[in-house]
């Protein structure tokens, strides 16, 4: 999706931030919003229209969707909390997964109406003249959407270079235009791209990662249990009688790409000739804004100056915090288990990093740990950042790292690693 921090930020951090959002009783027409920039927005609106009509629920659609202030950094917790109750009663197309299910919030979710997720795509006709050439060192160039699960999945790939793009549409385009040999991308973005560019054909394979599997659902704030029960009952009926499958045809994962256990062995093919024509809802790319909390900032490797200072006590405390809250997913030695590695070239390639220290700190403090995002204090997140810097080759000094300094650092993080 073209929502910055898509899924992880929306489905974990942001949902946790709307627990106190005011909710409007559904006694009149329910106001329905879609997520800004989502390539599945057309589908989401069609599903919502059919489900609510079948459920006997009058509905109006908010034309603009959730007001995300016009930026390309995604939806902040403040923006989502403000939209629910003020502008929207129901959000359709809300992404939910077992990894990032917002279970700590008071938001209410329907059952899923579309199982989708992240896939690995290559250009089907590699001899078309657009395929990316092999790099001199033999590494594969993989495109991903920065600050999204796409990036988290891609950085776990072996022997790869990374082309980080601003939007999911550009991530698909990187393969189509030969900037990358492969891409990890949100599958609805592939569908939307091919509806605009039916001349391109892609091979689709499953992306093997716990971050890959998602469901689109209806979401609302507290107090909407009765509405969500009606939606669930209607979804069950529409699933049984085939109406749901008819609505989502063309958006479902191809045969062979639905299993996350065989990333490169099961391959399906998708081409524009098999897709019904529709207008895709892809937002144009914008430059990321460095002031936005939660966004990992894409910068040139030469920008930013020296890394901020931190002291040894922070490293020691950060190591304890990491063991308690992070190691179960990222590994005892930061090697990555169900979540990406946090040290070495796979995390931040030396002299070629697109991740700023400030961006990493903002993302971590907004979205981590995944089961309870934002649970730590500013100082605890700062000490964790000191530990990450130390384990990636930076030396401790005498000055203490503060949250303000960590958050505003525009220095790329270039991994050591430490020996």
From TrEMBL:
<dbReference type="InterPro" id="IPR001638">
    <property type="entry name" value="Solute-binding_3/MltF_N"/>
</dbReference>
<keyword id="KW-0479">Metal-binding</keyword>
<feature type="domain" description="Cytochrome c">
    <location>
        <begin position="313"/>
        <end position="392"/>
    </location>
</feature>
<dbReference type="InterPro" id="IPR051459">
    <property type="entry name" value="Cytochrome_c-type_DH"/>
</dbReference>
<dbReference type="Pfam" id="PF13442">
    <property type="entry name" value="Cytochrome_CBB3"/>
</dbReference>
<dbReference type="InterPro" id="IPR036909">
    <property type="entry name" value="Cyt_c-like_dom_sf"/>
</dbReference>
<keyword id="KW-0732">Signal</keyword>
<dbReference type="InterPro" id="IPR009056">
    <property type="entry name" value="Cyt_c-like_dom"/>
</dbReference>
<feature type="signal peptide">
    <location>
        <begin position="1"/>
        <end position="21"/>
    </location>
</feature>
<keyword id="KW-0408">Iron</keyword>
<keyword id="KW-0349">Heme</keyword>
<protein>
    <submittedName>
        <fullName>ABC-type amino acid transport substrate-binding protein</fullName>
    </submittedName>
</protein>
């Amino acid at each position: 999706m073209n929502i910055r921090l898509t899924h992880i930020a929306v489905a974990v951090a942001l949902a946790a931030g709307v627990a106190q959002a005011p909710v409007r009783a559904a006694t009149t027409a329910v106001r329905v919003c879609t997520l800004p920039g989502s390539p599945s927005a057309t589908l989401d609106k069609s599903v919502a229209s059919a489900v609510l009509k079948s459920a006997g629920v009058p509905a109006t659609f908010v034309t603009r969707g959730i007001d995300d202030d016009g930026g390309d950094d995604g939806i902040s917790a403040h923006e989502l909390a403000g939209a629910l109750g003020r502008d929207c009663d129901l959000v359709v197309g809300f992404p939910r997964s077992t990894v990032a299910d917002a279970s700590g919030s008071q938001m209410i979710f329907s059952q899923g109406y579309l199982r989708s997720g992240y896939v690995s795509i290559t250009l089907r006709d590699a001899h078309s003249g657009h395929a990316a050439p092999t790099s001199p060192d033999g590494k594969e160039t993989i495109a991903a959407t920065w600050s999204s699960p796409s990036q988290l999945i891609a950085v776990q790939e072996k022997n790869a270079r990374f082309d980080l793009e601003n939007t999911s549409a550009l991530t698909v385009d990187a393969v189509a235009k030969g900037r990358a040999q492969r891409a990890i991308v949100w599958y609805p973005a592939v569908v939307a791209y091919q509806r605009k560019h039916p001349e391109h054909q892609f091979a689709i394979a499953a992306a093997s990662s716990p971050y890959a599997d998602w469901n689109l659902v209806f979401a609302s704030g507290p107090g909407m249990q009765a509405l969500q029960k009606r939606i669930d009952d209607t979804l069950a009926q529409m699933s049984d009688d085939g109406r749901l499958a008819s609505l989502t045809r063309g958006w479902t994962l191809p045969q062979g790409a639905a299993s996350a256990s065989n990333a490169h062995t099961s391959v399906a093919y998708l081409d524009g000739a098999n897709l019904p024509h529709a207008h895709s809802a892809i937002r144009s790319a914008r430059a990321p804004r460095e002031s936005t909390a939660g966004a990992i900032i894409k910068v040139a490797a030469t920008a930013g100056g020296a890394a901020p200072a931190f002291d040894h006590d922070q490293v020691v405390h950060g190591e304890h915090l990491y063991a308690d809250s992070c190691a179960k997913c990222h590994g005892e030695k930061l090697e990555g288990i169900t979540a990406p590695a946090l040290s070495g070239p796979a995390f931040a390639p030396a002299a070629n990093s697109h991740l700023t220290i400030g961006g990493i700190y903002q993302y971590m403090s907004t979205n981590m740990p995944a089961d309870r995002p934002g649970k730590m204090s500013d100082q605890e997140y700062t000490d964790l950042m000191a530990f990450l810097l130390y384990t990636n080759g930076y030396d401790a000094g005498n000055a203490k790292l503060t949250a303000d300094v960590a958050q505003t650092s525009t220095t790329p993080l270039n991994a050591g690693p430490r020996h």
